[in-house]
Amino acid sequence: MTPSPVAVAHRGDPYRVRENTVASLRSALRRGADAVEIDVRLTRDGVPVLLHDRTLKRLWEHERPLSALSFDEVRGLTGGGVPALAEALETTAGHRVMVDLPGSPDVRAVRRIMGVVREAGAAERVYYCAGADAMLAVRAADPDAEIALTWTTLAPPRPVLLEAIGPRWLNYRFSLVDRPLADRVHRDGHLLSVWTPDTRRSMRRLLEAGVDSITTNRVDVLCATRASAAAPSPVRPGSHA
């Protein structure tokens, strides 16, 4: 049984290993992650790969947008560093994967990504997160897909939007979350995930608020903080157990 809240490694283990790479995913799993979060976009020839940004500039020092490059060109420019989604799913076998869909992909792109997930036999362990437009595309592609709707304001999502998307999770920026918000989300029948606290203080506050999942860049710190919070308080001499 997975401990609560779920410890989700944001793009792998990015403080130690370059984000959204196979090595980063492996590092995060070694450090105790229950799940990993990855960002997926399409190359020019329709191959889903792991990359958050529109271009390769920040991580790989190449200005050209991913959408203008074939998969072979991406592999060549990055020395094989940018993995295909299929490779990432193989690397994370046996673990949950949160697939973030940056850049508001259209239904065609979403269907291609979800097709690779199905071909890998990973549909039961993959869930999807992003804003409303991308999640509407996911729902259109698969009525049974598990969705974490990313939400960035304190105003709750409109009922008509929730009905159309049918998310299992609401996914909030961690700074917005407190106990009343967590209670509201749970009362409305959803699980609450948050992103991306990296300090022990923030993690402890979120544990106390009752969130169901935490996505962080420091998954080992989260796992240690979670274990500490769950440990029973020692009985002091002279006290009654």
Automatic annotation (TrEMBL):
Residues 5-226 form the GP-PDE domain. Coiled coil: none annotated. It holds the Pfam family GDPD. It comes from the Bacteria. PROSITE patterns: GP_PDE (PS51704), PIPLC_X_DOMAIN (PS50007). This is Glycerophosphodiester phosphodiesterase.
